[in-house]
């Protein structure tokens, strides 16, 4: 049998990678291009980019690959795409981009989205999820554009996740898998489709779009279509090359680590850090937070995410480490991590960080917090505390959510992503979880998972287990160090877990302060001008008093009689 290959296209937040895999899990050829810039920010906490720029970066990779390995490319049996999540592309009636896409990193919120029906508000109040859903309603791109750019929303005919837009550019088809729709979309995860009438569904309505705005959902592993002639000219890929439905970057990473059941958990140390496990049974990850459909049919990924995970390393190096780093995300240097982390003792001399630089659904008002400062604390303590804080947060997700719901302990962890290239970060993870942590043959596990999904799609393997056995190879394992594990156990239980319960009310007060008091300068000026005009208008309308008219309630005094001096 002639050897077959799968081509994978992995759109990350920092760069795009194109690779050709064989059925042994080996990368035969690859190209990578770092975005410059990864995104742009017109205002603080904004993150936007032209989706066509990402596509152009991908096209440069595929053209290089086609030029360097033309014979190899002719043996490719199909292509799969993995992509970052929750980033909406708005298209007009001619399928042209209406405005730059708003990335998942963006923190803007709508101020006054459509009010939920009273009956739904009462139900949500009863289960304690009203605030969480309202915050996510405010974070939905569609609601923000409607409120702030109505002229742009009037042009919108299609509302797509960015992965779907890339598929459309390659195949001409607006189709995608349910696995790729994780985020602020009316995705009925359990049934792997959109809600039938999102605008009437208690959860679906918060996303502000009806089904006619959305793409067609197809099963993972199904053939979406072939590379068009136009796309072939742009990318150098063979016209007609089949593109198979795959899934999100996190789901592909989990599969690339060989996590196909809930005996193992997958940790991703990327721009966003996450922990996932895989089940055939639909099991919520947190209260009212559904599992995401896996990139292979019939499976679900339980997922807990730290939205600004290893992004915090770059933030720290820029803001506190004196590094000249742009606002754009940069690659994390494993050598730099390993060179300084070990100079600080485990537990950072009592410095404990909670990494809520971007809050999640279950804790919508949470903020980042760090306690335990003293005069002995240095920059390096802060640096290591970030690594430890992310580890604490992921351990909490594993124990308080996954293990509580699946009713058994997960004893093995596998790790990938940029941060996993650091031996020190992997060892800290093993010590915090007090479990062995293993790496596989490549840190590019999102691409590897997409390749596994591709080989399953073309029927090279009969089952996911067979594909994983052939393509995922364990590389090295970090075992917990007893003394360090005891230190982390103490700080985790006696400091970290107690932080949020004690700070939760304060976080809510800070949110109220930020939304009510710290309004943008332009808004404050506008409000002040409106008050001045209102006051001026009232003064103009008030009738002027008449001087010659006496008040009705005052009696006229009799004239004083002057004495007659002649008598």
Offer a concise description of the structure.
The chain is of the alpha+beta class. The chain has helices at 51-68, 70-73, 118-127, 130-139, 141-148, 150-153, 162-171, 229-235, 249-256, 311-319, 334-341, 379-406, 423-433, 445-457, 464-471, 482-516, 521-541, and strands spanning 5-11, 15-21, 27-34, 48-49, 76-83, 88-91, 101-102, 158-161, 175-176, 187-188, 193-194, 216-217, 223-226, 242-248, 264-269, 273-279, 292-293, 300-306, 352-354, 369-371, 412-416, 437-440, 474-478.
Keywords:
alpha+beta; 567 residues; 7-stranded mixed sheet; Nucleotidyltransferase, domain 5; 17 helices
Sheet bearing the most strands, described? 7 strands, mixed
Name of the top-level CATH class of the domain at 273-516: Alpha Beta
Q: Which overall shape is indicated by the principal axes computed on the Cα atoms?
A: globular
Q: What Rg, in angstroms, do the CA atoms define?
A: 29 Å
Which percent band covers the strand fraction?
Answer: 15-25%
Distance between the termini: 148 Å
Question: How many runs of DSSP E, i.e. beta strands?
Answer: 23
Structural class: alpha+beta
**Going across the major beta sheet, what is the strand order?**
17-18-16-15-21-22-23
| CATH superfamily caption of the domain at 273-516 | ATPase, nucleotide binding domain
Mean pLDDT: 88
Which stretches are low in confidence, meaning pLDDT under 50 for 5 or more residues running? 325-331, 551-556
The CATH topology of the domain at 273-516 corresponds to: Nucleotidyltransferase, domain 5
Fraction of helical residues: 25-40%
CATH architecture classification name of the domain at 273-516: 2-Layer Sandwich
**Helical region count?**
17
């Amino acid at each position: 049998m002639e050897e077959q290959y799968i081509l994978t296209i992995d759109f990350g937040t920092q760069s795009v990678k194109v690779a050709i895999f064989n059925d042994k899990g080996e990368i035969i050829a690859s190209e990578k291009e770092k975005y410059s810039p990864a995104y742009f920010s017109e205002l603080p906490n904004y993150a936007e980019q032209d989706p066509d720029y990402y596509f152009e970066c991908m096209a440069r990779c595929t053209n290089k690959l086609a030029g360097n390995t033309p014979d190899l490319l002719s043996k490719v049996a199909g292509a799969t795409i993995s992509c970052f999540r929750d980033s909406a592309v708005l298209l007009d009636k001619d399928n042209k981009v209406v405005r730059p896409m708003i990335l998942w990193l963006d923190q803007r919120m709508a101020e006054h989205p459509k009010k939920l029906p009273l009956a739904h508000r009462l139900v949500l109040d009863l289960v304690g999820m009203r605030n969480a859903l309202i915050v996510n309603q405010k974070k939905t791109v569609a609601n923000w554009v409607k409120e702030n750019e109505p002229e742009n929303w009037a042009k919108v005919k299609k509302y797509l996740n960015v992965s779907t837009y890339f598929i459309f550019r390659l195949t001409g088809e607006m189709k995608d898998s349910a696995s790729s729709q994780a985020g602020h979309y009316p995705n009925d995860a359990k049934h792997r489709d959109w809600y039938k009438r999102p605008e009437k569904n208690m959860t679906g309505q918060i996303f502000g779009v009806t089904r006619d705005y959305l793409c067609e959902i197809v099963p993972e592993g199904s053939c979406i279509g072939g590379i068009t002639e136009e796309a072939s000219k742009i990318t150098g890929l063979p016209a007609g090359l089949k593109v198979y439905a795959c899934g999100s970057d996190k789901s592909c990473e989990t599969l690339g680590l060989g996590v196909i059941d809930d005996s193992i958990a997958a940790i991703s140390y990327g721009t966003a850090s996450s922990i996932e496990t895989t089940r055939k049974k639909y099991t919520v990850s947190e209260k009212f937070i559904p599992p995401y459909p896996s990139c292979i049919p019939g499976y679900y990924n339980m997922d807990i995410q730290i939205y600004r995970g290893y992004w915090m390393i770059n933030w720290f190096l820029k803001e506190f480490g004196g590094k000249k780093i742009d606002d754009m995300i940069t690659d994390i240097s494993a050598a730099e991590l390993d060179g300084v982390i070990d100079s600080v003792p485990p537990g950072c001399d009592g410095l404990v960080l909670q990494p809520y630089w971007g809050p999640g659904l279950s804790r919508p008002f949470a903020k980042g917090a760090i306690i335990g400062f003293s005069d002995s604390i240095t920059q390096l303590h802060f640096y290591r505390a970030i690594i430890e804080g992310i580890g604490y947060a992921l351990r909490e997700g594993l124990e308080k959510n996954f293990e509580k719901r699946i009713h058994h302990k997960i004893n093995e962890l596998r790790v990938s992503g940029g941060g996993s290239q650091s031996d020190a970060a992997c060892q800290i993870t093993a010590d915090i979880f007090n479990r062995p942590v293993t790496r596989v043959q490549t840190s590019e596990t999102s691409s590897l998972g997409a390749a596994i999904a591709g080989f399953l799609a073309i029927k090279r393997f009969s089952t996911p287990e067979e594909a994983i056995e052939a393509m995922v190879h364990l590389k090295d394992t970090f075992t917990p160090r007893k003394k360090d594990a005891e230190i982390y156990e103490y700080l985790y239980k006696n400091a970290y877990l107690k932080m949020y319960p004690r700070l939760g009310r304060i976080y809510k007060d800070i949110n109220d302060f930020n939304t009510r008091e710290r309004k943008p300068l332009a808004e404050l000026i506008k409000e002040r001008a409106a008050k001045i005009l209102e006051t001026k208008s009232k003064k103009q309308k008030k009738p002027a008093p008449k001087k010659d008219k006496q008040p009705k309630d005052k009696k006229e005094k009799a004239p004083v009689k002057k004495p007659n001096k002649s008598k």
